[in-house]
Structure formats: C-alpha cells, structure tokens
Amino acid sequence: MDTVMHLNLRVDPTQYISQIREVPGYDYIHLVRQPKYMVDLSLLNNKVYYLSEIFSPKKFVKKNNISLLHAHHGQLGMLLLPFKDKTKLPLATSIRGRDATLANQPVGYLEGMKRLFRKGEVFFPVCQYLADRINMWGCPHEKIRVLYGGVDLSQYHYRPPTQSDSQNIISVGRLIEKKGHHVLIQAFHKIKEKFPNATLTIIGRGDMEQQLKSLASQLRLGDSFQLLHHLPKEKVREHMVNADLFCAASIVAPNGDVEGIPNTVKEAMATGVPVISTTHAGIPELVTHEQEGILVKENDADELALALEFMLLNRDKWEVYTAAARQKVEQMFDLEKQLQKQAEFYDELLGGWR
C-alpha cells in the first residue's frame, strides 16, 4: 500500500481529516508545520509529525515508505517545494478558497503560486470556480482535477420539512467577512415586521463577533436573534435539524477573500433543511436556483430579504427543493464517493511514477 504524506494547516476536525486519513487503498503520514498546530489532541497518533522537526527529507521519506506528497492549501504547496526537490516525489496541492486569491497574501505570493504550478504535478481545487481561477493564473488545464469536499451521509439523515408554524432561520460558519453574516442580519431585520415570530441563529466564532452583536443591537432584533459560539459538530447538527431554513449569505470580502463551496450548505441539504444562498464562487455548482434551493445576488440585503420572505410564504415548495437537494449531495458530494475519486486521482498520478 502506498503512503501519502499530507501537510495541512492544523490537526482539528474541521481540517479535512477524512481526505488525509480515510482515502481508500492509501496509508498516510499527517504533517503540520509545528507542534502548536496540533489543535485537537484526540487526533494525535504515531502518524502525526511536524515539518519543522524533519531535518532529512530523504531519510524521512525512506523510513515511512512515502510515495506522494499532498499539500492541503496553496501556501502549503509552496512550503513543500524544497521537500519535493530533495525527495523527487510527486506533489499534489488542494486549492480551497483564499489561496486562489491575493487576499492578505505576502509579497510575491502570485509568483510563488506560478512556480508551484510549474513544479507541482496535480492540483485539486474544491470547485470548478476555483479551477478556473488558478487556470487564469497560469496553472495548466491538464494539471487540474476538481475534487469536491464530501459530506459523510451516515451522519446526516434526510428528514422532509414539516408543515409547522415555526420560522427558525439558521446560518453556520466562521464570523468573518466572506461569510456575509452581516448581510443576513440586515436582511432578517427587513422581514422582521412581516414575520414577528421568525428567529435567526448564527453559529460560529471569529473576528466579527462583536461587530455582528452590535449590528443586531442597533437593529433592535432582541430575542429574535442569537449568536452561538462554535459548537461541537453534533450540537450543530441538532440545531440544523430543528431549523426551518438554512441561509449562507457568502460574499467576496473587501480584501478579495472567497469561498470554495461552504460545507455547511451541503450538510443542510443532506439533512433536508431548505437552503437560501448566493451566486458566490462555487455555490451555483451545488445549488441550482429554484431547483435545490434559492440563490440571490451576493451582498444584497434587499434581494436576500425577498428570498427569505418567498421561502417563508411558500412552504409547499420546501419538500421538492429538499428532495432534489439531498439527491444532488448524494450524487456529487458524498464523502465516500469523493474519497474514492481522490484515490483514483492518486492512482492516475502514481501510474506515471512507478
């Protein structure tokens, strides 16, 4: 069995653990840059190493029988280029969002990425939108393989929407600009008079927490709004199951940061919660407007408010949307299928190296 050496940003449950440890037919070595990035100690095992402590890449590769390098972010791909040069191993790099932009990137970032495109063997953008972006930056088309992030469908069971009187709207994601939570709060305020019993719950943590709380206070949302800190995955699923609508108001951040496709939208679709989102980045690859949900122009609180109102007034459409949404996730975003595709991409790459 071939062993892949993976480098990702942190060892925690949000950081693509399945794409590192559960690829069928492949063993793994799990690297992070330094011990401080070992965030969740429950994931620590004898296959976790620190790049800063590897002094002889050749010896490390030989000892662990490594056949392939996989960096799970563009910046990490650049970081592994010296390792690749010393070991002569093929390098795969995942592209996940901000790494396909110049948002808060260091001087020389674009030149570094172009060098990575020349020297790396294959690139796995998480959606076609990002594939097109890196192709525009100079990544050869023949090196690009779109690899969607998958949902573990054994953890997300479809339940048709109920015809209850509740109007609970939920959004889940880091409290950062590109998630568009501030736009959602503004849109929710616009429908509040017409739907006085509606509630909005945002789950996440991040730099915008105080800004979002202040906005909700200014708009006098009161008890109809709550912001919950980052919760364990099972608690998030519990909130999602009890929601009536899921909204991801993703936008291009002022610094240019973008999404790929938010996993939370896939999870809501798998669960049977009707979704409203935006035409941002790769989201239209997941949601077709008025088929698996509703899409609106990004960064437009008025249009988003109209979408919220439309969904709350047309509950009879929810089951059609959610059934189609579950089917879409099963067909294109099932974790098991995506891990198998990842293994096939590895096979394709290593076939030319053996």
Automatic annotation (TrEMBL):
Residues 163-327 form the Glycosyl transferase family domain. Pfam families: Glyco_transf_4, Glycos_transf_1. The keyword Cell cycle does not apply. Residues 42-154 form the Glycosyltransferase subfamily 4-like N-terminal domain. InterPro entries: Glyco_trans_1, Glyco_trans_4-like_N, Glycosyltransferase_grp1. It comes from the Bacteria. Keywords: Transferase. GO terms for molecular function: glycosyltransferase activity. The keyword Magnesium does not apply. SUPFAM superfamilies: UDP-Glycosyltransferase/glycogen phosphorylase. PANTHER family: SLL1723 PROTEIN, SULFOQUINOVOSYL TRANSFERASE SQD2. This is Colanic acid biosynthesis glycosyltransferase WcaL. It comes from Neobacillus mesonae. The lineage of its organism: Bacteria, Bacillati, Bacillota, Bacilli, Bacillales.
